[in-house]
Amino acid sequence: MNDLKKLKINKLLKIIIIVMLCIVVAIVGFILYGKYQLSKIPALSFKEALAYTTKENKNAVITVGIVKNVNISYKVYGESGEVLPNKVYTYEIGSLTKTFTSALISKGIDEGKISLDDTIDKYLDLPEGKHYPTIMQLLTHTSGYKAYYFEAPMIKSFFTGRNDFYGITDEMVLKQIKKAKLKNQTYSFKYSNFGYATLGLVLEAVYDKEYTDLLNEYMQKELGLTATMISDGNGHLNNYWDWKAGDAYMSAGAVTSNIVDMLSYLELQMKEQGYFKSCHESLMKINTSSKSYEAMGIHMDEIAMAWIIDRKNHIIWHNGGTDNYNCYMGFNTETQTGVIILSNLSPDYRIPATVLGVKLLTEIK
Predict the structure, then answer these.
(1) Mean per-residue pLDDT for 293-302?
(2) What distance in Å separates the CA atoms of residue 307 and residue 277, rounded to the nearest whole number?
(3) Cβ within 8 Å of residue 253, ≥6 positions away
(4) What is the structure's pLDDT at 294?
(5) DSSP states of 265-298 as a string?
(6) At a CB cut-off of 8 Å and minimum separation 6, what does 246 contact?
(7) Whole-model pTM?
(8) Phi/psi at 66 (5° precision)
(9) pLDDT digits (tens, 9 = 90+) for 145-154
């Protein structure tokens, strides 16, 4: 190898090393900056956090509802926290859907059709000689099931920008249930959309009705939430998830609603009448608050039927998120105070609705 080639190789190596060092420095700097920004959030008031979240974002539409005793109110916020006219918008509520699924389970228990201690093979046609989770384990995310199981439709959804769970059928979920190898034990808390897809199958079997029809009828006719439904892709905002008729994961996160209905639903939760009270009774201690959650004053101490219990703040809460929306509902039954945050921003965008909601709820209680 001649000297010229050696010089070129050495020069190239130096360039590669310099580029790699720059990348490392940039990544470390980004992480440190992120931690610095994160460290400032706990000190922000609700209004300050809201203003920062919507700063210079002309598309932001965040609706905030408050229930305090008999007083009910809401405001709509836009760019940089500006108060907008009180228009009623349709939002995806993501995993807040799970609280409706759990309410139907609680209703089924109240009617003597379901038992918390039953394993799912009592309701679903499954092979004998295997262990299956109980209804309680599914409700509390302690079944041992993964968050989700890979299915072929996910590939197409990835490339087309669709909801990951689009096109995943009941049959696919049932096949995964049959394949899963679970032990006869209570597993530690692991948030599972698949677990709630399984609960959807149980409800379909118990009530002999497809989940979409079952839930829409329950929400609209029984609860009087006339604008709340399994998403049909329509609404006042943009970028709603696509769902295919009969999708199995609808029971985990397919509902859309608006502030009027969500305030009514919040009132139902706070009154704790009938089987709604059972939805909030602790089923298990989980103590799974992350460091970032704890830094924001958010605690996950125990779990009821989907609902998370924060003992330190005396809050019962649940949140939800899709690609383009996130929300939070939390309430204190002792002070009869509750909040609902509906946002058309991604859960990863600046300060999420969960943090905003806890800030507001702890400020007004």
Answers:
(1) 90
(2) 11
(3) 94, 95, 97, 98, 165, 193, 320, 322
(4) 85
(5) HHHHHHHT-THHHHHTS--EE-----HHHHHTT-
(6) 169, 170, 210, 212
(7) 0.90
(8) -130, 135
(9) 999 999 999 9
